[in-house]
Amino acid sequence: MESDGGTHSPAGIRGAAITKTTAERLIEAAADLLDSGGEGAVTLRAVGSAAGVSHNAPYKHFANRSALLAAVATASFRDLAMAMQAIRQASTSPKDKLSDTIALTIDFHQKTPARYRLLFNNPDTASADGELRIAATETFEHLRAIVEACQQAGYLPDAPSHTLASLIFASAHGLLAIESDGAMRPEKGLSTVATSMELLLSLLSRR
Questions:
Q1: For 92-120, what is each residue's pLDDT tens digit?
Q2: 40: exposed, middle or buried (Cβ count in 10 Å: 0-12, 13-18, 19+)
Q3: How far apart are CA 72 and CA 196, in angstroms?
Q4: What is the pLDDT of residues 46-67, one digit of tens each?
Q5: At what angle do helices 94-111 and 193-204 cross, to 10 degrees?
Q6: If we measure between CA atoms, which residue out of 101, 41, 88, 36 comes closest to residue 65?
Q7: How far apart are the C-alpha atoms of 103 and 3, rounded to whole Å?
Q8: Whole-angstrom Cα distance, residue 21 to residue 57?
Q9: Phi and psi of 127, rounded to 5°?
Q10: Angle between helices 44-51 and 65-89 (to 10 degrees)
Q11: Against a cut of 0.90, is the pTM above it?
């Protein structure tokens, strides 16, 4: 994803020309409520109203609010995976693909912080199985493959690619948390998440 909300933006993946099922409309409405009002704004009644269906309609598709939020997380992971796949397929260097993937993560956090927290700061999401686990794993696999390509190009050190990918993401995740807490200050040696990650990757670089 580009930091200016370019074509890799998961928030821009909609497919308005395709007729959506009621469940898809409810998931999209829930995601919009989550983005605009936080997790507390997502209730089955509010989602039904936002989707333009009866108050009882959401209960026909989702057992409870947690199931609806899990569906939002699944759809969001799939959007992220699509954006990462587009980065992987671009005719750019592995190094640029990794930078673009980090920019994607930063952009997703800054534009949709509540949805980011649902995906990466929610214990229920972390422990989920089924489609949600599959979608999350697919997203991570794109990052791992990009890291592996950087290793093969000699840009990153030799290490298990899944471990290195996890460490890189954990670093970005931690910096984003510091930024959210308002603690990213120049006197601490940190300016922005992007520049801090650029420095980290340059320190890891073998070139």
A1: 999 999 999 999 999 999 999 999 999 99
A2: exposed
A3: 30
A4: 999 999 999 889 999 999 999 9
A5: 150
A6: 41
A7: 6
A8: 12
A9: -100, 5
A10: 60
A11: no
**89: which residues sit within 8 A by CB, 6+ positions away?**
none
Q: Enter the tokens of residue 120.
A: 């990466």
pLDDT tens readout for residues 121-179: 999 999 999 999 999 999 999 999 999 999 999 999 999 999 999 999 999 999 999 99
Please say whether the beta carbons of 73 and 114 come within 8 A: no
Q: Which residues contact 53 (CB under 8 A, 6 or more apart)?
A: 22, 25, 26
- As a whole number of angstroms, the distance between CA 29 and CA 178 comes to 30
Q: What are the chain's domains?
A: 10-204 (1.10.357.10)
Residues contacting residue 111 through CB under 8 Å, at least 6 positions apart: 5, 9, 11
CA–CA separation, 167 vs 162, rounded Å?
9
Tokens 């397929």 locate to 89
Specify the amino acid at residue 116.
Y
> Mind listing the pLDDT tens digit for each residue in 171-188?
999 999 999 988 888 888
CB contact at 8 A, 94 and 153:
yes
